[in-house]
Model the fold of this input.
Amino acid sequence: MPTMKDVALKAGVSLGTVSNVLNGKDSVLPENRAKVLRVVERLKFRSNLVARTLRTKSSKDIGLIIPNINNPFYPELARGVEDAANKAGFTVLLCNDDRDVRKERSYIKSLMAKKMYGIVLLKPQISRAEAEEIALNMAMVLMDARMPAGSACNVVNVDDRGGIVKGMRFLRRHGHAKIGFIKGLADSLSSHDRVKAYREFLKDEGLPLRREYIFPGDYSLNGGCKAARALLTLSDPPTAIASSNDLMALGCLKEAQRMGLDVPGDVSVIGYDNLDLANFCTPRLTTINQPKYEMGVKGVELLLRNFPHGPGLPGEVAVLPTEVVERESAGPARAR
Amino acid sequence: MPTMKDVALKAGVSLGTVSNVLNGKDSVLPENRAKVLRVVERLKFRSNLVARTLRTKSSKDIGLIIPNINNPFYPELARGVEDAANKAGFTVLLCNDDRDVRKERSYIKSLMAKKMYGIVLLKPQISRAEAEEIALNMAMVLMDARMPAGSACNVVNVDDRGGIVKGMRFLRRHGHAKIGFIKGLADSLSSHDRVKAYREFLKDEGLPLRREYIFPGDYSLNGGCKAARALLTLSDPPTAIASSNDLMALGCLKEAQRMGLDVPGDVSVIGYDNLDLANFCTPRLTTINQPKYEMGVKGVELLLRNFPHGPGLPGEVAVLPTEVVERESAGPARAR
DNA sequence: GCTCCATAATGTAACGTTTCATCACCAAGG
DNA sequence: CCTTGGTGATGAAACGTTACATTATGGAGC
Done:
């Protein structure tokens, strides 16, 4: 592997000149530039990013940490991050923390130790204090997180409340009064917000809140099955189920089918996320769209815009809209 | 950010000693070790991986390049890579090349420039010559690729032929004689092998090869829909469809349904991959299992085992088995 | 002819590690 | 008492860049 020194030697110029050529600095004679480029070509020289990063103290890559690579929600978001980052000349490295806070911490440390430019962290499980401290050292954007006002972290969230309310209204309009709800994992902010929105909606509508109608889920297909079975075997089962994500909603569809129930004839199901898959299941899933791609793009925008900043300078918070996507898994309630 | 020099200073020892402590070398007095560790703790020192990598010329991370992060096949495989790599003390960085050979090249160059330990490259699109050249400079494992004997590259493949043959036999046993086939993308090795196996099977069985029964796909849900529509609207449509992957098979299910056909009553569908999803669609998908997780593990195993090697030392080739997973999307052929 | 300035190129010092040759020290052996 | 050898610690060199202060060059202005 040739180094810049080799190039300089063969081209008969100094190291600094080679560096200037490679970095597109002006103030280098066209003929020298040409000579250098020729040698670069001939030796197949590629500059050593490690050395460059050591010297400049920051690389041009962004780490994207996601909680679960198996959930198709994240790849769609990741694509947004990637496109936006590439457009700005950055490379994205993806890390999967498996919803394990120790893995999360370990990845963060590793990304910092590698002097990456910044981190986009989804569903952070580390403490706020930890997050603040990291934000002092490198650009950081959190998604699906709540930080106190004035925090140095940038945050991109989605209008979770609004999404749930829209979904619930939709069900109400179709005459549903008994609506079950599948929660997400306990430690997730969006999950928390969504349950809360569900509760408040019932209250506002003057509907009774039935504890047994709220079932804990884990965001997985299987979790959806279990929840559906639990809810639909109640002595007085709900006529509609709202799920905290699409994967669990798909599980519901499957389980309802296994139980010989018709969706939406016997029970309506409504998801959350609007995955590609929601269009391909049977029946197609009515769901709440999250602007996944746009979230990724927005995240990178904040990441690149708000750094470096002086200490104590607050980050930005962006909240993206949600909306109902009507398909066939939810319909009029039928008296049973 | 404190450096080792700071630590050395505060601990009253030399830089070298700090390095020895941090790297777990013996030959450092217990009391000095303790002193250093205390200071490390107090200053919250974290060693700079960039500097370390520059000095040692190789980091402890592995780049994993996948063609399409949206296909759930890859995340499952990635998990295998990750677990195996982590167990060996390596970190995995994921890159998505979007099936674009230029992106692929760019990621490879970037990983090399970052002096990563090695690359696991799925469905390589670069030329064999390029691959060989890379393999001279860093550890490399290809998946779903064919390299000439004696190549320096390690390769992990799956028994594609065998998978197709098993699937076709299954359909034959159920009385299907008119079997359609959805190909993958033209440039994919496994796709090529799978079509070839399909053709040979027909020949061996003495069945006619009908050109119109082979439809090109793109591995996506939508591609599956299109293919199904094309095949099922033929004047003499197949009674069974074998797809090169599960995603397209799911598309088939959906499209058949849209056309008012019953699966497997009117048409049998068989996939390839055995994604989690295959268990949750309606009907559940009969498919060919690929040992995704194991592929990832095997890849890392080869990566770590066969490097560094002298020039010209050939890599290993591993071929993992496939098998039919029977569910409900394929059944007896019905005369129409 | 002299100064002054702009332009290009140069050489060297970082960046933060690891590595390696060297040294100081002390106990054991002749 | 002198050598030998082993144990820890040390200091400096290297890894391959970028940044910066410095120098060389040549033309413009007086």
Summary: Chain B has a mean pLDDT of 93. The CA atoms of residues 94 and 239 of chain B lie 41 Å apart. The first strand of chain B starts at residue 61 and ends at 66. Residues 3-5, 15-16, 19-20, 22-23, 47-56 of chain B lie near DNA strand C (CB under 10 Å from a C1').
